[in-house]
Amino acid sequence: MTLVTQVKGLQKSFGERKILSEVSFDIRKGEKIGLVGWNGAGKSTLVKILMNRVECDQGSVTMWPPNMKIGYLPQSSDNDLSIDSELLDNSRGLMEKSKQLGLPKDRWDGEDLHHLSGGEKLKLSLAKLWTNFPELLILDEPTNHLDMQGVNWLVEEVRTYSGAAVVISHDRYFLDETVSKIFELEDGKLDVYEGNYSSYRSEKLRRTEQDKRDYEKQQRKVEKIEKQISTLKDWSGKAHRQAGKQGSNAENRQMGLREFERAKAKKKDNQIKSKLKRLNLELSKHEVTKPKEEQSVSFQFESAQKRGKRILEAKGIKKQFGEHVLFDKSNFYIKHGDRIGLLGSNGAGKTTFIKLLLQKETLTRGSLWISESTKLAYLSQDISDLPGEKTPLEYLDLNHRQQETKARTLLANMGIEQEIFKRPISELSLGERTRIKLIHMFMMEYDLLILDEPTNHLDLPSREELEKALSTFSGTLLIVSHDRYLIEKLCTKLLVIDNGKINQVEMGIKDYEERKKKTFTRDEQHVTEELALIETKMTELLGKISYLSAGTEEYDRIDEELMKCMDRKRKLKKL
Questions:
Q1: Using an 8 Å Cβ cutoff, are 208 and 501 in contact?
Q2: Of residues 48, 60, 51, the one with CA closest to residue 23
């Protein structure tokens, strides 16, 4: 494959902290590369250097052609996704891509442009990116805020994109479906793994285990040599003492004995030097450094005692804003211990439904009952609602030292330095703010967890640990997430907002999508069969009408029937 980017010996530091150290790699045309690493590992810095927005301290970045057109999607939250006036241009390509993403033109034309949700803004940004025909794509967390339709569209677009793409993502499903190589940044170094994310995790585990075995093997060898040296030193010391020992006149006449001990001591000293030389040579040529323990993140959830079977029930609920109906005639219930994924396209009403549960919105019609004994905790995807001027300690409002100790322990378990407790929240990263919100939840007792995009801004190890913790939670989970892995792993039931209704589905997302696919296939087959029948009928009618004179009763009858067939054919073609 043609080389499009070559990076050699990149180094970058900010003050005392070294971010990148001797980073080198090649990117070839058509390669799809996932860039992964802990938050703060240097992924964004590396991308900014590639984009020529930050200068490296040492090293070089070469691109072919030098004026390569780069399509860059920065990581964004709901509040900083800007939509510029260029998008108002009536671009055919933009309209087509937006439509494919499930965003009709009437949602971004004119005044509606300023009222788009975060997911809709992201879809529009992606559509614009693709219509500019970039030669290299750099996507930073491109699936944040995207619904399933948007993610599936993006997967297909990245797969079929002819140029090279670098994807920074914590979305394991997206990485598995799109990339064939992983660049991992850790401690300023970059390691390359062939394959998708699952292959990378498997290979990384294999390498780590092999490094442990090699290190332990070498340590056993070092220990053996050190024991031999220790024994020789004991013998040498004894020989030296014997050689210098003052005896009687008769003993002193036995000069040969002391000379013998002296020679023996010298021999032992030479053996010690030889052993040390051998040990140093072994370590200088083949030293295996102790493998770094993979940073661990620990979450801990506790559930209050069971409080009954049914904790929530909806009867005929309806919600509309003006003329726009989000959902209507919806009936469902949630039992204690249920693990439910809330699905729906961007703008379908997921956030509104959560606000109804939190009593921040009122129903248009129907009833929504929640057991009074249910203690509910909510994690929103909006991290901008944290008070930026306060420190985490002030925000958590801990009443006594025991609570503060627990909060500090939780923070340490999440891999976060204690010093962030003293910094204003406005100075914290998105991931750190998410963790502060999680700690706030952990300090509560709860029966029902409502989690709105809980893995947004969490790095990959943190996502995996959060899944493990949530899998042990004995209470009820209601999860809104575009993280396909999270929903697939944790949720055994679904609430799906589709076609203006909330439907209860007694199965996981994998089985649900398979069922939808089969239903779609049956419908598609029915349309194909009907089209074939109509075309046969039209051929027959055209044959008949060709023998008739215009204006006759029979001609008009067949002409009318032919027009009906043509109209039906047009409608079927649109399905």
A1: no
A2: 60
